[in-house]
What we know:
Structural class: alpha+beta
Amino acid sequence: MEMTAIETASAVQRGETSARAEVDAAIARIEARDDELNAVVVRRFEDARREADALDRQGALADLPLAGVPMTIKESYDLAGLPTTWGSDALAGFTAVEDALVARRLRAAGAIILGKTNVPPMLADWQSKNGIYGTTHNPHRHGFSPGGSSGGAAAALAAGYVPLEFGSDIGGSIRVPAHFCGVWGHKPTYGVVPMDGHLFPGTDGHEPDMGVGGPLARDPADLELALRLTARHPLAPAAVETLAGTRIAVLGVHPTAPCGDEILASVEAAARAARDAGATIVCDAAWPDLAALHSDYLRLLLTTLGRGQPLPDGVAMPSVEDWWQQLDQQARARRAWDRLFEDVDIVVAPVAGITAFPIDDGNSESRLVEVNGEASPWGLQLAYAGLCNYPGLPGTAMPVSRSSDGLPIGIQVIGPRYEDFTTLGAARMIAAALAK
């Protein structure tokens, strides 16, 4: 069984292995399988080997929590001297001049970045396929999507290449790949992780509204460590230390999006395990108007993603007043969720109402997905992602089960703003309860 990031660093610190040995082993795993999966699309193997050798010569690694840990990072993060294209043909010539801030922080902690992982064009799809790097496949089933936009990231983890990755999320882009590939992912509270070096290529300005950076891993403890290392400021400790007495609201089917029966069963299994461990399931939670909030989320999402893109025919540019009204609606949404969290500690919900779908031509506007045997527009599924993105809440995606056809199923644990370690801790405890 592959070691976690924390286990790898501990072994390197104790001298049981070396940074170079771990980097070489990870590179060998990539070279053995990635022609089939196509997850690690920008590689810096020789530079990584040199960095590992330098780390081994350095010694005194006790203060490096990621000492010698090989990892990859989403293509949309800048690494000096390497392309950052966001999967767009129009940006194929852009080369970064310095590392993104999160990359610098992870390296300062001892991590060795082997390369960058695949994304969809403009990070705007739930599959990772583009004209520059080609198509990434789900390690659990060739020809199926690993998710997006951090699809290459989740695939690299699920394939066992590396123990740690770093992605970004504005529409489920960390949580959906984690769900599709059976790994862990954390979407932080908006603004907690700096986005310097993860901006539209060639720009250096405002961080995108609702967009966040966050870690993916095969182990939840690695998520917690990566978040601590990259966060702008210390976060509060978990508000719950045990499931006993924890108040949980459970969301099954979103009012605007269908959900597969097997996914609902996984949500219910997680809630049942938590209840058996002493949690209280709050049945009369004061939910916000989820349908209205989803409509507002889509409006703000399309406005945010429209930066640098030509307006479709017949679509007018939002006025300044319209923009402020959108932000006012978002503030009201935050307050509505704040009221919910006066009565509950966490929310358990689907990450999406579907499992990984077959890779298609990339036309997300016309894509249909199957839900309980019936065709449904893919875009409806953004409702589950928007639960976290629109109000800026933290959400931890955790693997729970498999579908009848063998595909991973995950759920998300959502909490109040800035209580990231509450969702991370609760997810770990739910996973332990499920394992009993």
